[in-house]
Amino acid sequence: MSTPHPPQVEAARAMAPEQPPAAGTPRRTSHARDFGRGFVVKLILMALVNALGVYVVLAAWGEESYGIMWSMVAMLVVADYVYFSRRALPLKYIVPGLVFLLAYQIFTVVYTGVVAFTNYGDGHNSTKQDAIEFLLISNERRVEGSPTYPVTVVRAGDQLGFAIVNADGEVRVGTAEQPLQTVDGTATDGVASEVPGYEVLGRQEILENADDVTALRVPVSDDAEDGSLRTQDARNAFVAKSFLEYDEEADVMRDLSTGAVYTPSDEGYFVAEDGTRLQTGWRVNVGLDNFATAFGDARYATPFFKILAWTFAFAILSVLTTFLLGLFLAIVFNDPRLRGRKIYRTLLILPYAVPGFLAALLWSGMLNRRYGFVNEMLLGGAEVGWLTDPTLAKLSVLGVNLWLGFPYMFLIATGALQAIPSDVLEAAKIDGAGRIRTWWSVTMPLLLVSTAPLLISSFAFNFNNFTLIYMLTRGGPRFTDASVPLGHTDILISMVYSVSGLDGTAAKNYGLASALSIVIFVIVATISALAFRRTRSLEEIN
């Protein structure tokens, strides 16, 4: 049995400088500072990371997404510096998290904010130059009196082209960059069969590149006025010419058939003097127009404020009902006198184990007005409009969300109750506090210290609970006094989805949808910040 040392000896040992290892004792070094097995493993992993990063850089360069390209280059440089530098060794633990934070959170928020100030949507999907090229191509007409040529689809490298045989039997070939020119080729039955310098594509290869073939335009000559060769079936080609002409110096689009002149507008369209405009436009900055539309245009403002009120009510009531039910069940099944508590707890968390979208779909079928289980089996065939009546639909949404959400609250409440020190409760009893007083003054504050952050996150989740709304009611029943496809159970995030046009019920308007997304972000961030600030006062009890 060892003799305990006095406190003075222990303190002296703690303050004494660390002695170097004895001679012959191997010094252990980090694998980041030597060239052992750990360094080799790190080198391989970083090589894979760099290979993936270079692939992203090249892909972004090819798509002319220079922002993504330079961001990836910067992240690769930082990662290589951190993991191969001794000075930045502590940063290796936080760099992965920072990269994912930048890529999936900050970039998303910033990009959404940028789009919110543009007219991005149907008819405004790209740049002005792309819109000009599309207008010139999409407004082509076949040149009157031009012949039809049997066409052969060819390829030179990665460029597709057309080969035809003219009336004199000469083989002519060209690509989008190279006008038709006569070559020493071979024709069989009036169709080019061999073209020097080009590969003749078979039927299967043509089918694999069908979109590129039908979109291909081969200039007939160096003069654009002569038109271009195009095909619709990869068998026959004809000469087509656009009846629109773009004057680059004057920056106007002219209609060669009517003489109308279209000038670019601030809204991203080519507009004539009589107000008519060409349908395809381009993305431009519209300032606060999207926000003004959301709050000032009656088509959106009227349902917006209704949906905003319901969103707050839905989020608050969802958190309140699920937490109260989960807390009640946690108190009941936390009583040691109750037998079979483990079995009951397992059964209670079963709804939490079912995927949310699947459970919402099941409830949507069960609450069907005519064939649902609830009406047919439980109500004897009554046709109650659980999902078609505005009030009942909202109650159904809250009820289904209660069924889905209370197991989570039950789990966190159970953990919080079991984490409360028993001596604190004993001290309250000794001080003469009854059960109600102990619960209100001791148990509840300690419970809220643990659960308040989770309640705030639950509020944020329900504020954006798109899955439940979309799978259960799709936002219905629809507003009868609104000209946009929105309904009584829509929340802000499902309104954004409908406004964006992704559901196919309206024209796509990503700019307005992004503006609404920014509004949602500001609301949730503000409420969360205020709530977290208020919960700090609860920690003073400790």
In short:
The chain has helices at residues 7-15, 37-62, 66-84, 95-116, 128-138, 203-208, 210-215, 289-296, 298-333, 341-348, 350-353, 356-366, 373-378, 390-419, 422-430, 435-463, 466-472, 492-500, 510-535, and strands at 140-142, 148-150, 152-156, 159-165, 171-175, 181-183, 186-188, 191-194, 199-200, 218-219, 228-231, 236-242, 244-247, 252-255, 261-264, 270-271.
Describe this structure in words.
By secondary structure, the protein is α+β, with helices and mostly antiparallel strands. The chain has 3 domains: 7-116, no CATH class; 142-242, D-maltodextrin-binding protein, MBP (Periplasmic binding protein-like II, Beta Barrel), CATH 2.40.430; 297-539, MetI-like fold (Orthogonal Bundle), CATH 1.10.3720.10. It contains 19 helices and 16 strands. It has helices at 7-15, 37-62, 66-84, 95-116, 128-138, 203-208, 210-215, 289-296, 298-333, 341-348, 350-353, 356-366, 373-378, 390-419, 422-430, 435-463, 466-472, 492-500, 510-535; strands at 140-142, 148-150, 152-156, 159-165, 171-175, 181-183, 186-188, 191-194, 199-200, 218-219, 228-231, 236-242, 244-247, 252-255, 261-264, 270-271. Strands 1, 2, 10, 11 and 12 form a 5-stranded antiparallel β-sheet that branches. A 5-stranded antiparallel β-sheet has the order 6-5-4-3-9, with no helix packed on it. Helix 8 (289-296) crosses helix 9 and helix 12 packs parallel to helix 17. The radius of gyration is 35 Å and the shape is elongated. The two termini are 40 Å apart.
